[in-house]
Specification:
Number of helices: 4
Shape: globular
Largest sheet: 6 strands, antiparallel
Distance between the termini: 14 Å
Oligomer: single chain
Helix content: 25-40%
Strand content: 25-35%
Length: 121
Amino acid sequence: MNIQSGDATTDNGNHFESRAAGIKSYSDARHAVRQILQIPKVAMSTHNIMAYRFTDKDNNNHEGTDENGEHGAAFTILKDLRQNNINNVIVVVSRKFGQKLGPRRFNHISNAAKSAVQKVV
């Protein structure tokens, strides 16, 4: 599986990184997540926020998220995927917590996700 890394950013001691991969099934999604979570920087992160969308071989659409304790963040990624009609992709944004950022953390999460997804689609 080809995992792509997005742009990393740091703000107030928080570090955000992203990874994305092309998928066409739940099996692909599980495989990608396992592979991504084995990356040392990802494994050491405070939060690993995930969203995916794909269309299966029977033309059924599937999507899902995992907040991993970062309330509202995964939906932000999924909303971006929907609005940009991006399909057949899974993205994981990793956050190493520093200081509280408030709502601006969503901008960092969204930008990190977009930078990785652009390398996949």
